[in-house]
C-alpha cells in the first residue's frame, strides 16, 4: 500500500464521517455540521500512584538485566537506545 493510498483512504473515511454526522459534501465544498459540546467521562491513569519525590540515576549500560530495590507502588525507567558494537568492550 503506497502512502498516497493511505491518504486517499483516510480522506474517504473523513468524508464518510462528515456526512454520517450531518455534514454535506458538494463538489470541493465540505460543510461540517456544528454539534453541541458534550463532556466526556474523566479518565485517569495510574490512580493511586505517586512519585516518591526523588530520582535515582543508574548511569550504566544495561545489556542483559538490572535489579534494584525501591519503596512504593511503581517506578519509571527512562533512557536511550544505542547501537552496540560487538568489537568493543
Structure description:
This protein is of the alpha+beta class and 89 residues long. The chain is 20% helix and 7% strand. The chain has one helix spanning 3-20; strands at 24-26, 29-31. A hairpin with a 2-residue loop joins strand 1 and strand 2 (29-31).
Query: Regarding quaternary structure, how should these chains be classified?
Result: single chain
Structural class: alpha+beta
From the N-terminal CA to the C-terminal CA, the straight-line distance is 43 Å
Number of strands: 2
What does the average pLDDT come to?
87
Topology record:
Blueprint: H1 3-20, E1 24-26, E2 29-31
Antiparallel strand pairs: 1-2
Task: Kindly list the characteristics that best describe this protein.
alpha+beta; 7% strand; 1 helix; two-stranded antiparallel sheet; 89 residues
In short, what is this structure?
By secondary structure, the chain is of the alpha+beta class.
